[in-house]
Design brief:
This protein is of the alpha/beta class. Helices cover 47% and strands 16% of the residues. The protein has helices at residues 12-26, 54-64, 82-86, 99-115, 135-151, 158-166, 190-193, 196-208, 241-258, 276-288, 307-319, 326-332, 337-348, 352-370, 375-381, 387-398, 402-405; strands spanning 3-8, 30-33, 44-49, 68-74, 91-95, 120-123, 126-130, 176-184, 215-219, 224-228, 260-266, 297-299, 409-410. Strands 8, 9, 10, 11, 12 and 13 form a six-stranded mixed sheet that branches. It has a five-stranded parallel sheet with strand order 2-1-3-4-5, sandwiched between helices. The longest helix is centred in the C-terminal third of the chain and has 19 residues, at 352-370.
């Protein structure tokens, strides 16, 4: 059988040798199709990636043209090569390429077409991964890839934003970012502990079903970003009572049923795609600060913007291990003691002593997780008067004693 091959988006300097090589070595098996929009079937499509958004074009093309793809990736875009796996590209060649490399890929394509077998992606001549992903998963991965770039502030121009948005269905693009971390109590079924990430994602999917158009999960090593579009006419995500109730239900259910302790930071509601990376940073900040209402849930919008309170919380962060008092901090920010304690409670949702306790506990959690210091040493290091007081306070707010906490397992999302 004679197959057709189409050269799509190839630079002139690269197209001429490709045509010559096909005619030279495969003229009996391949016919070059000059019009890529012809009604004739295309068996092999050679496509060149010269710009980051050529991956977007390729993603669209694959939805409409089901054939064997050989992708030529320009050297300066080598860092984007994992997208070839996500898009189920059968062969990948790094440009500049040699005649022998092209012949090798053409030989694999020909064998695949003859035998109708799944091909292997090639990277500089080495087999790296089999392609078995379903189409739905591939499309989702492309969306997640674009969200990652937006979250890191790697997309700048209006054209780039429009290209990114074109991948998503209408009203699916997220405007809310949640930063999720947690740990598993190992007194539960160890098999269930290994499935903690699966449980977390499934509960988010279950509880937000029919509430938001779609959820996106973007894992990092020790955290999970959950993104969605809040469609109600709200100016503040912290005022969304239904969403708050859902977050609280997810946290309590996971702890009760699977012994998974979850902590969630929620960034500001933002409909501007340019600002998505700001929401990401806000959610991370919200996760790290003492809570306004619930220990496991913190909204960035609830963090005080009052200059004197910002100055006072920074002072607490710098002096938490000392015998710091509300009077000391009030003097530091040039406020009367009575005015300071009222303002602090109003702006942070906590009394001064509770806020200081949360800061000390957070430092204690870090030391328990990442150092070999004894509980007595950590208690003294973070500013508690006695180990017993540290342990009882830790139990009250974290839900386990320091010794029990050291037996928990931090959840890794990748």
């Amino acid at each position: 059988m004679k197959y057709t091959i189409c050269l799509s988006g190839i630079k002139d300097i690269d197209q001429e040798p490709l045509k010559r090589w096909v005619e030279e070595n495969y003229h009996e098996r391949f016919r070059i199709l000059t019009n890529e929009f012809s009604d004739n079937p295309i068996h092999v499509r050679v496509f060149q990636i010269r710009d980051i958004y050529d991956w977007v074009k390729l993603s669209r093309m694959k939805k409409h043209y089901n054939c064997y793809y050989i992708v030529i990736l320009d050297q300066h875009l080598l860092h984007t090569s994992p997208l070839a796996v996500r898009l189920q590209v059968q062969s990948l060649i790094i440009n500049p390429f040699k005649k022998s490399a092209f012949f090798r890929e053409m030989g694999i394509a020909l064998k695949t077409l003859d035998q109708q077998q799944i091909a292997l992606i090639q990277f500089e001549g080495k087999k790296i991964i089999s392609v078995h992903k379903p189409k739905a998963m591939v499309n989702e991965s492309m969306e997640v890839y674009m969200l990652r770039r937006l979250l890191h502030g790697d997309v700048h121009s209006e054209n780039e934003i429009l290209e990114a948005l074109s991948i998503f269905k209408e009203n699916d693009f997220p405007n809310t970012v949640c930063y999720v971390q947690g740990f598993v109590h190992l007194d539960h079924d160890p098999l269930e502990s290994n499935r903690s990430v699966q449980f977390i994602c499934s509960y988010f999917e279950k509880e937000f079903k029919d509430i938001v158009p779609r959820l996106y999960f973007i894992p990092f090593r020790k955290s999970l970003l959950v993104l969605f579009r809040q469609t109600e006419n709200l100016h503040s995500i912290s005022k969304w009572e239904e969403g708050r109730a859902i977050f609280e239900k997810i946290v309590s259910t996971l702890l009760e049923k699977h012994r998974i302790q979850l902590y969630i930071g929620v960034g500001s509601l933002n409909n501007n795609p340019h600002m998505l990376h700001h929401s990401f940073k806000e959610s991370k900040i919200a996760r790290s600060l003492p809570p306004y209402h619930e220990v496991s849930l913190r909204y960035y919008e609830e963090i005080s913007k009052e200059p004197s309170i910002i100055k006072s919380t920074r002072y607490i962060e710098d002096h938490f291990s000392e015998e710091v008092t509300a009077k000391d901090v009030a003097n530091h920010v040039n406020l009367s003691y009575s005015h300071f304690v009222r303002l602090f409670k109003k702006e942070t949702g906590n009394t001064f002593s509770n806020y200081l306790t949360f800061v000390r506990l957070r430092k204690g959690v870090w030391n328990l997780r990442y150092t070999d210091k004894t509980i007595e040493e950590i208690s003294d290091l973070v500013g508690f008067n006695t180990p017993n007081y540290f342990s009882s306070t830790f139990k009250k707010y974290v839900g386990s004693t320091p010794s029990e906490f050291r037996l928990t397992k931090e959840i890794l999302f990748t």
